[in-house]
Amino acid sequence: MECSPPSHDVAEALPCRSGDASLVAVVTVEICVADEAGAVAAIAGGADRIELCAALEAGGLTPSLALLERVLARARPAGVEVHAMVRPRAGDFAYDADELALAIAEGQALVGAGADGLVFGACRGAWLDEAALADFADAHAGTRLTLHRAIDLVADPVAAVGTVIALRYERILSSGGAATADEGADTLRRMVERAAGRCRIAAGSGVRADNVAGLIARTGVDHVHGSASLPGPPVDARVVALGFAVGPRRMTDREAVAALCAAASKPV
Questions:
Q1: Using CA atoms, how far apart are residues 64 and 53, in angstroms rounded to an integer?
Q2: What is the mean pLDDT of residues 185-213?
Q3: Of the listed ranges 10-19, 28-37, 63-72, 147-156, the one predicted with least confidence
Q4: Within a domain: residue 14?
Q5: Pairing relationship of beta strands 123-124 and 117-120 according to DSSP bridges
Q6: CA distances from 121 to 52, 60, 147, 225, 246 (A)
Q7: pLDDT at 169
Q8: Which of 15, 91, 167, 198 has CA 20 to 30 A from 151's CA?
């Protein structure tokens, strides 16, 4: 599977929303969860959307169909969308042919089980893996697709926005190529400008109730993504010593979700 620098870039984006948060009519708040209890907390806290993963401590992996079905049973009555991560293994996002085939099969199974959309990404070195992303999109025609933070590994996330649009992904989750969305705010703003309404830019990484309003104002994003989580109970030291865990699991917190949703709706 070959990969090359972006070749599908589009024309320069027209000027779009400035950093004035008063121009943001609606901000969608997405909470990433890895279990049914997390989904319950996200829904109760007022989240608009759930990103469902397994193993958040590894950055998120493909969830099981049984977990998806249980979360959908909670989310559907509340009108909350559930978008499922497709990541067949931990580590980087350079997939070989077998791994890509597995990712496609996982995605098709998740959509068949009722997922509202899929979250996927692939890159090699400093470039998006256009071939893999195109194959995944072709295999999921008609499915709403988000490109995840693999875009934060590329040399120029702003230029990559045009590639993502051409590949038919409707949304990009990004920290602007930085460790946190706050640190990458200037790049996120430029990504929003480049997208010019043709795809959504969602700010993620380190998004909290105490910084989300300022982040929206600085970037113009109308989607934000966070875990709204707290450390869970201490883990038995033997469990860590034997390599079964790296520390306490983080647990989605209803109050943290509610605070994030409230703060995201308040212009600064």
A1: 9
A2: 97
A3: 10-19
A4: no
A5: unpaired
A6: 15, 12, 5, 16, 25
A7: 98
A8: 15
Domain, as residue range, for 125: 26-264
- 179, amino acid identity: A
pTM of the model: 0.87
Question: Residue for token digits 């989750």?
Answer: 173
Q: Any idea what the CATH number is for the domain that residue 209 is in?
A: 3.20.20.380
| Burial of residue 124 (number of CB atoms within 10 Å: 0-12, 13-18, 19+) | buried
Handedness of CA 161, 187, 251, 253 (dihedral sign): negative
- Which pLDDT score, from 0 to 100, does residue 247 have? 80
The terminus-to-terminus CA distance of the chain in angstroms comes to: 47
72-81 pLDDT tens trace:
999 999 999 9
Which residue has tokens 């033997």? 238
In sign, the C-alpha dihedral spanning 136, 138, 140, 143 is positive
pLDDT averaged over every residue in the chain:
90
Domain count, the chain: 1
Burial environment of residue 122 by CB neighbours within 10 A (0 to 12, 13 to 18, 19 or more)? buried
Structure tokens at 146: 């988000």
